[in-house]
Structure formats: structure tokens, C-alpha cells
Amino acid sequence: MNIIETHNLTKSFGSVIAVNDLTISVRRGEFVAFMGASGSGKTTLLNILACLDTFTSGEVFIDGHNLAALDEEGRRVLRANKIGLVFQQFHLIPYLTALENVMLAQHFHSVTDEPAARQILGDVGLAHRLHHRPGALSGGEQQRVCIARALVNEPPILFADEPTGNLDEENECNILALLQDLHRRGRTVVLVTHNPDLAARADRIIRLHHGKVFEP
Amino acid sequence: MAGADPMFRRLVWRALRWRRGRAAVVFAALTVGAAIVCALAAVYFDIHAGMSRELRTFGANFYLGPAGAGGATWAEADFNHLIAGAPPGLVVAASPCLLGTAQVGARRVALAGVSFEGLRPLAAYWQVRGAWVAADFDDRNAMLGARLAEELERGVGDELTLTNDLADDAAKPLRVKGVVETGDANDRRLIVSLALAQEWLGQPGRLSHALLRVDGPPERVAAWAADVRQRYPALDAKPILRIAAAEGLVLDKIKGLMGLVALVILALATLCVNTALTASVSARAVEFALQQALGARRRAIVAQILAETLLTAAAAAAAGLALGWVLAQLIGRAVFAAAITFRAPVLPLTVTLALAAALLAVILPIRRALQTEPARILKGE
Fold first, then answer.
1. Pair B223, B83 in one domain
2. Along chain A (216 residues), what's the average pLDDT of each consecutive run of 10 residues?
3. ipTM, 2 dp
4. Which of A44, B58, B153, B259 has the fewest CB atoms within 10 Å, i.e. the most exposed one?
5. Could you tell me the residue range of the domain that residue B94 belongs to?
6. CA of A109 to nearest chain B CA: how many angstroms apart?
7. Judgement on whether residues B47 and B81 belong to the same structural domain of the protein
8. Who contacts B114 (Cβ-Cβ below 8 Å, separation ≥6)?
9. What is the value of pTM for the model shown?
């Protein structure tokens, strides 16, 4: 069963077509990599699938929900319940601790649950860093907080946009291992990267070029 | 519900502490605005009393005397009854007066019998060489108008004698205790105690007129005047319009000026707060974009910015009240030489205007925060 589907999806910015008549699908529990050079449309595609951006034409289904039929509030609810986001720049709130950054996602989802937030940070190996602010954490640790935040509401889909782009090699391996582990435990993981070595860790690679699927 | 969650309070408090520099700018701008509003409002609501005290030095502002042609007199007992029956606090000074003429040597002079104790507060503007006659019962000392003193060639400490053409043996020696320059008819009068004048002029218990200083809103003064005229139809009771009108005009102008100054300062504070909050929201674009990406409702972001701003504004209003109160006292001392009394409307007015200024200033920053496009901002564009 597909958890993500697009049919003839197009997104244009004025005369620039970022995603061009794209039809793809991702099965539930699959680990897929969107790969392409800068400007290939992979981040634009991720933003649409993550309900952060709208599209110009076509159809998009996320876990059975037709995005075209949803208003802004509908997309917000879908994003809060079905999607976890991991960013290249981590985007942690600098004045909150690691624990509070994770609880922030709970706060905007429903209500905070500190034991659950502690548990998820423990799962990503940060049980000893709960009360540190982002400025006191390494890049790898910050990215693990970001992943914990993305997972704390137990969304079925995890989107990771260049999650290792700001990390050294050791932390890159750790983060990839973490994503693979999440996939093994049944989570659908969509990785966006321009790095072929990273993309190779996924079950399947969807290559993008000028907003279209590119078959080499 | 975002507001009920402890996380909301933590978010607001930590954000304020994290950006305390910008919060301090907002706090300072609103504190100055609130202080100015508080000080001017305190003066505004107390200015009538202050100005009345100040204008009291300009002299009497109310006339009581017989209606009709000049020269008539009326009973001192009526005067005493009127003053005793006046509403509490209305009459703050009163000077009954009997006018006539008397012989000093070969010269006939204008004589004024007054209550020195009542006259002195009404004649603060008189230039006195020597001293005032201190007591109403003093019938050995007199004050001399400056022009009459020149004509009689008398000065402070000199003696003069009242004589009576009709009774050769009648003579009353007086010592000149003070020479006064008043700028009015008193410059040509010999001023003695009321009792002495009544006796010397043969009009015991009679008055020519009385001058009063009455305090209070014009409506209250007019109502009392009407009441006096109704009870004593033979009497003329009226505000001295020149002083009363000047008082009202000055008050209106000062109040208008204070309102304008407060408005301008508040507008400047609002602009300053708006600038600081706009800069703050711009710097926090990623934060608000992330919150939206995490599923935050628009109202949760509005609530956070509002809470941060209103907390700062509330603290600024409290500081502004304290600072404004000190400022009001300084203004009171400098302008009216008196303390400003705290009036109840100052507190709600200051707090309301400070919060309103903050709310006005935060509208555009909130709009900007809500216009954040998460996809573009989180991508790093």
C-alpha cells in the first residue's frame, strides 16, 4: 500500500517549473531517497509532500489524504499527525534545552509528555544531554535532537532533507544508522540528498532532474 | 490549548530572557511613554487645585456688594452670615471693606477700612515697603498707598493724624507700618482696620463691599452666586470675570498642551516598540517557521508574541507609574510649588494607554510573523 502518491504533480514559480508532471509513489515502511543535483526540485518536492508548500497542478495523496482537498488548517493537522521533519540546519530553538525542543513538538501537536520526550531522546543516545541547550551540543547531537523531535509524535512518515549535510563523517554514519534503524522498525523514511553514497543506503532511489524523474 | 500548557509559559519566559536586549528596548520605550502619561495625567487631574493655588496670588475673583449705585453700604452681619454658610472649601479668602474719606492735616484723603488678615492672602501681588498690619484689631497702625504717601510726604515709620472737621477735639494718631504699591485705587488710599474705619466714618457694622477668593469649578461658583442673590436680593454677588476667564483659558491651554505632549510621546514610544518588535520578529523568522512546520496553529504564534509583548508592557506600565509619579511631583514642585495629589483615574489611564500602545505596536510584527513561509525560511532562503 502506498503511503505517498503523486500524479502529474507540477509546481512552478512564475516561469520556472521546479517540479514537472511528476508521478511517483512510496510504499508504507519503505526507505526512499530523492536524489538530484542542486535545482533538481527535490527539496521543492519534499516541501509539497510535507505539506509545507502548495502545488500548481496534479494530485498528491499522503496516507490516503488528498492534499488538493485540504485547506491550510487541514494541511497543518496532517503535517502535525503524519509527518516528521529533519532539517539540514537542525532548526532547534536556541533558548530551549534538548528536552524542551522535543517537547515543543508535543506542545504544538497536542499536550506535552515529558517522560515520552525523555524516552525518545534516550533512544537516540542523548539521555545524558537532556538539559543542554543547542549551543552546548555538537552538530551530531543537535541532529539527533532534531530526529527525536521529528519522531516524538510518532508520525508514520519521516522526511529528512540533507540530514547529514552539516555533519562530519562519523556523525554522518551515526545519523544514517539511526535512520536505517527507524526504517527497520517500520517507519517510512524519505531521504533527500545529492550524495549518491547516502542515497545508496535507501531501498530505492528516485533520481530527479529538472523536476522530472530521471532514469539513467 | 496553547495558553494552558506550562510549555507555553516556558516558551514565553525563555524567549524574553534570551532576547533580553530587544525586550529591554521595548521595556524602556514603553516605560518612558507610561511615565510621561502618568506624570501628565497626574498633573492634569490635579491642575485645577494647583492652578487655583497659583492664580490665588492674582487676587480676588469674586465680588460681594450692594446692588445699584455706588456709595451704598450693607450689613457686616450679612457678610459674616454668608461666609459662614458658604459650601465647605468654596471661600478660601475674604476681605470686607468700608470706603470713605477722612481728613489728614489739611488734606482730604480716601480711607479704606479692611480686614488685614483677610486681605493679605488676596493681595499677594502688592509690593509692600515696611510691613503688613498684622491684626484686625490693630487701630494704631495703618498702611499707605504709594501715591498718597508721596503726596503726604510720609514713609514707613512716620506718623499721621486723622482729624475731624466737625469735631475739633477728635484726632486719631496712626503710624505708617507699610507703604504699598498695588497698581490700583489702593495706591491713593489710607488703609486702616475695618473697625477703626467704621467708627471714624460713623458707620458701625456697615460695609461697602467685600472681595473674595473662591475655589472650585466655574459651575459651582456660579451656583453659589445665584444662591446669594436669591437670598439677598439687595446684594450683587458675581465672579470677577477677568480673573475667572483667564483662569479657565490658562487651564484649557495647559490641559490641551499636556494632552498633546502625552500623545506625541506615546506615539513615539509606539513607533519605537514597533521597530524593535519588527526587528525581533524578523530575527526569529526561522523560529516561527519551525513552529508552523511542527504544526503550530496561527493563534498559537499570535498568543506567544502577544504574551511576550504584554508581559513587557505590563512591567513597563508598573515602572512607568512609579517613574511618572516622581516626575509629577517634580513638575508640581517646579510649577505650583506644591505636591501633586494622586487621583484615581491616573492608574487605569496609564496602564490602559501603555497596553494599548504595545498592542498597536505589535499588530504589524504579528502580521509579519504569520506571513512567514516555512518552506522558504527553513530551506535557508
1. yes
2. 94 92 94 91 93 94 94 92 92 95 94 93 91 94 93 92 84 86 91 90 92 82
3. 0.91
4. B153
5. 62-239
6. 6
7. no
8. B95, B96, B97, B191, B192, B193, B194, B197
9. 0.69
